[in-house]
Design a protein that fits this description.
By secondary structure, the protein is an alpha/beta fold. It has 3 domains: 241 residues, Rossmann fold (3-Layer(aba) Sandwich); 65 residues, no CATH class; 88 residues, Macroglobulin (MG2) domain (Immunoglobulin-like), CATH 2.60.40. The chain is 28% helix and 26% strand. The strands form 5 sheets. An 8-stranded mixed beta sheet has the order 3-4-6-5-9-10-11-12, sandwiched between helices. It has a 4-stranded antiparallel beta sheet with strand order 16-15-18-19, with no helix packed on it. Strands 13-14-17 form a 3-stranded antiparallel beta sheet, with helices on one face. The longest helix is centred in the C-terminal third of the chain and has 26 residues.
């Protein structure tokens, strides 16, 4: 199916925007998507968590900041500690936004799709354009330090958390998706996994944004932050990435010249805030779990940026899960959030469960559910052998038909991880079977493309 081309008259014939059309509907995939939707976002379960309207003093910002904290059902009834997911909101929102996330968490926990979890939603607004991009800036303040230091320390002190890297994740939407990727890549010692929904996680390609900014401003400067969505967003990014307190009235260095061409020195400053583009990465990044998705019809033009981000991660040799879907910037979030939350939960549970198994290899066991789950590129299956055995691991589809044999041979006692990378398999429910000596275990996994 051909792509549609839209010209940009303000830049002449040198720029053409390509927008992916809605693909033809695959009925089998549609039925599976409906099934998954019922599984993840179906009738609300009996359990309900509660939201605490909290606040803390931030040393980094020198002020009191608001934060919502979701506590799962039963939190007040026992002394159990829980993993933490930090959720970063998008531009124009605050800690009270995305209320539907609470219903999603209640449903996922009640239906035992995820484990009980504490979810933290900080207010990420700062500076003259409010959108901080969760970045330290002399204009906006040290917002990154607020999230990664003050907020983490406060939550671990005030609530019963599992205050270790293996039990902490970060996710976000739009501006928050950018923030989750940035803070995850910069601070792998803090976050075991991170997820982005519809975030502009790469500066490339940026022609769409340039075209929109020129259109909003009549083809050239002066650029007015109130001219429209794209111009204001660019000024907010400038406040985060290229502030200049000596350059009134907006106190930023803008990324475009009068004629719309990019200012290379400013672009370099912006790029420095995208860790995947700046080697070397901190130690530990290669072992982290990364999820991101974006709609094919994302109105903010972020889909090509997500493709570019995937290419960057490929070049760096980092594993990730990237999912595209039919939809825009916000319209599919109630369906997408359960997928990323389940992904994060599978990683947070698997990492510590596997470590616990290392302390006592006394019996055959499947350490935990495969992770990540759902997945579309690869998933990890872990198991323990108390003694040398012949091990055979096979994959079958939902009808019991053999799909693939992952391993078949003698293995010594120990802990093992094996990776399944589906090759051309359709989305759906699959089962992996582990046969070791006299033992046999089967579990379900979900491939979602």
């Amino acid at each position: 199916m051909p792509w549609h081309e839209i010209g940009c008259p303000e830049k002449g014939i040198g720029y053409v925007l390509q927008i992916a059309p809605f693909p033809e509907v695959d009925m089998k995939l549609l039925k599976f998507a409906c099934l998954l939707g019922l599984l993840l976002c179906g009738i609300r379960g009996y359990g309900q968590g509660r939201v605490v309207d909290d606040s803390l003093y931030s040393d980094a910002l020198g002020e009191i900041r608001l934060v919502d904290v979701y506590l799962p059902e039963g939190y007040d009834d026992d002394s159990a500690r829980h993993p933490v997911i930090c959720f970063l909101h998008g531009s124009g929102n605050d800690q009270n936004s995305y209320e539907f996330l609470i219903d999603i968490l209640d449903s996922l926990i009640s239906n035992e799709i995820i484990h009980p979890v504490i979810v933290v939603k900080p207010d990420g607004n700062a500076g003259p354009f409010e959108s901080s991009f969760y970045t330290n800036s002399e204009l906006n303040g040290a917002v990154e330090d607020y999230v990664t230091q003050d907020l983490v320390n406060y939550i671990d002190t005030a609530y019963r958390t599992l205050a270790v890297h293996d039990k902490r994740a970060i996710m976000g939407h739009s501006m928050g998706g950018i923030g989750a990727m940035k803070l995850g890549l910069k601070h792998p010692d803090l976050y075991r996994a991170w997820a982005s929904h519809c975030g502009r996680v790469s500066l490339d390609p940026d022609s769409f944004w340039v075209c929109q900014i020129l259109t909003e401003n009549g083809g050239s400067e002066p650029y007015d932050p109130n001219a429209g969505f794209f111009t204001r967003g660019a000024f907010a990014m400038a406040a985060a990435y290229s502030p200049n307190l000596q350059n009134p009235p907006h106190f930023v260095d803008f990324i475009l010249y009068n004629d719309g061409n990019r200012v290379d020195s400013i672009r370099a400053k912006w790029l420095s805030h995208y860790p995947a583009c700046n080697p070397p990465l901190p130690p530990g990044v290669a072992t982290q779990a990364i999820y991101f998705d974006c709609g094919l019809q994302d109105e903010a033009g972020n889909y090509p940026a997500n493709l570019a981000f995937a290419e960057t991660l490929d070049a760096r040799g980092l594993a990730y899960e990237f999912q595209s879907f039919v939809g825009g910037h916000v319209d599919r979030l109630p369906e997408r959030f359960p997928i990323s939350v389940a992904f994060l939960d599978s990683v947070l549970q698997a990492s510590s469960d596997f470590k616990n198994e290392k302390r006592n290899i006394s019996e055959f066991s499947l350490c935990c559910q495969n992770y990540p789950s759902p997945f579309n590129v690869s998933t990890i299956i872990q198991y323990t052998l108390p003694k040398a055995s012949n091990v055979r691991i096979t994959i079958c589809d939902i009808l019991g038909r053999h799909v693939e044999t992952l391993t078949n041979g003698q293995q010594n006692a120990g802990l093992y991880s094996i990776v399944w990378r589906p090759n051309g398999n359709a989305s759906g429910v699959y089962f992996y079977h582990i046969h070791a000596g006299d033992h046999s275990v089967a579990k379900r996994c979900i491939l979602l493309k």
